[in-house]
Protein: Putative Flp pilus-assembly TadE/G-like protein
Organism: Paucimonas lemoignei
Amino acid sequence: MSVSPHLIYQRGQALVFSLVTVVIILLVMVSMYTMGQQSINKMRLQNAADAAAYSAVQAEARDYNFSAYTNRAVIANQVAVAQVVGLTSWAKGYAATYNGPSSWVPQVLSGLGGPLAKIFWDTPVKAYKPASKAFGKAMETAGPIAVKLLDVLIDVLNAAQMVYHYGTALTVAQTIGLSPAAVIDKLPGVDVDSLGVVKDLLSFNEAYNVIKLNDKDADLSTPGMAAAIVHLAQWFMFTSQKDPNVLNKDGAQADRMAQVTKNSLDGFSKNRNTEGGGPGNIFPAESMYLTPFVVDPTRLIPYQNGALLMMLWHRGGTELKKVGAAKKTWSAMDGTGFFGAAIFWISILGIPIPIPIIIPFLPMGWGAAQAGQSSNLLATNNFDTEPSDAYGGIYNNPMTAGAAGIQAGKGAGSTMDSKAGLRKYFDVKNDTKPNLQGPPLVLEIEKADTNIPTSNKISGGQLTLQNGTRSGYMRSLSKAEVYFSRPKKLFARGDGKTELASLYSPYWQARLAPNSFLEQYASMSYQLW
């Protein structure tokens, strides 16, 4: 049987075509493998850069929020110190009112009066005398202890704030792999391996390096290290430790802590004025009105001699006293004044004639206390308080001005804690700006192309395709920033205003941000060198 020569020729054509097709398919597959590995490694490298940048600024946001929480805690404890100082002053004044040298005057008047005056004066006074004396002594003993404990807690919070702040800088450096050894290794002509055991001391644990955790072959590039170092410097300069007790160190901004603290004082500390005065109303009730404590209308009946009217008027408050440049002293003063009137009837030609006897503005009791540097109790030199309003307006009222003058002459007494007062604290360096964004962190990381699988490696060098990397490295660029935001829908302010950034409100957050054209251009320019 003969074979057609046409069939043999057709078989030869199919074989050649198949071989060419297989080669083309293999080349496409090898090319796809190389491009796929490049795409996978590029995505992994970009994810590593994004994760590292976001993690680093997340740590910075936590530091700002930690400072905000500790600042609030410090202010709360400063308010507690003011409360103790004020309560001690009030207790001393309370004791003096019912046990002092003037306490006998209203008792005499009430004794001359009828049963009504005795009931409403003598009965409560008998209870207030021992109670006020015991309470005054208790506060003189417990007050200094409480203030010292509160000041220790304030110092602990301040120390924690500083440790956390500088610890955050170390955390950021570890997160992005900015170790001293890595920086030294990038310097021209320096071989970090030659440092021996010193290299280990200068290297961070890679278990905290987010870049390495996402891509073990990736590192910060030289421009990336430079940008990270610049960022850390900017981050340190964005906030600063302020000292409200150093003259002109922080300018007007030095008053910020003092102002926030003063505004945070409770009603008892700001103003201890009583509504009606007297034993029944000796506790503070913010009011400027004078109401009688005892009124006995039966004294208006002819020949019914005795007290017609008796009343007490109390003023007091706590001030943040300025001593020189320092706003370090908490001082408090309380004073109580007495006003009384009695009627004595005489008969002239059988006609009853009332003779009024008035005792105006008698100082009844006074007290004061302080914590911090020794200071006077004058109406001036108090932080953010007009002289007329100092210590609850005690000097501005004729009923209590006498008690204030007596106490001012005596002074505030021994300080509860000489270290009391405002301390150093962290805040944004320039609070005249909105500061809604912190300094951005720009990261550039790189990966050597020798660590990227290619067709050259799987083919034993027979099928080589260039990976297209510049200077033998694949690089990725990322950017993240800290920003301040208090969402109105979630945390609305009562005044409806937009809150600006500070280290008093814990609304700092982290976010990724797009790289600017200049940042991308700088990264590309470096690769062309």
Summary: The radius of gyration is 40 Å.
